[in-house]
Fold:
Amino acid sequence: MRSLYPETAPRREMQLDVGDGHRLHISEHGRADGVPALFLHGGPGSGCEDYHSGFFNPGIYRSILFDQRGCGRSTPHAELAHNDTWSLVADIERIREVLGIESWLIFGGSWGSTLALAYAQRHPERVAALVLRGIFLCRDEDIAWFYQSGADRLFPDHWAEYRDLIPPAERDDLVAAYRRRLTSDDEVTRLAAARAWSLWEGRTLSLRPSDSALEHFGNPRTALSIARIENHYFAHRCWLQPDQLCRDAARLADIPGVLVHGRYDVVCPVKQAFDLHAAWPQAELKVIADAGHAASEPGITDALLEATDRFGAQLAAQMGVTPA
Structure:
């Protein structure tokens, strides 16, 4: 199986002012003249790491990573104001214009797949290919499965820690109950809720337990941005109309795409990938038999790299880029 390409230090970094008080951290990796590719991280609220550049062959790609509003090295941290799906779609277009890119491959996992679909459906002419992992369609049923009723039956022990932070009288709507705490004026209340919310996700990501995931999701600063921003988005249904991403999938018909999804994904059950594929049959669906949700699981990593390698070779030939 393929392994990630070696992590590379950023070739260029910048802070981009996108208005509304937000500044985005952007890093470029690989070749200055390479095939442009944009990495969209999950969460929302998680942020990028330099190792994410390893999904792209540095001898072919010019890979661009950016921390979405309120997370990672973007500022202000964990900010909810002016932070919504369509602002992020506009941010992606702003980045493309600032970097002078005509079209690019878009790579996104989990929430990153949601954002990639929203962007591609609004700007299909700017998308050369889509590589999506752990499909999240952000329908009411998808949010309820993980945060209200469904995944609790598979991880009742971890669920108890998430649920028990909320008094029984408020448990009929856990997203709303967490929202009250994550937006509280009391710092102790906010941090306790953030930790419980974030660790519930970290403990269920992969088929096998991952110490690195728990370290990431348990980090107080990371937990605060993940929990506050995820909750904010899910409380607003990500500013999407019901089933919008499948409804508008015909706009993707001319975009080559690969969907990679773990058979035992508890965070985003595999039905979401099948539903999207039914609406977008031109895409290739790869269900990984021995994986959950995490991009780091071997079968998922291998499938993602196979897709970026294949599209990289095709797009490099079209652009006249000679692989290094």
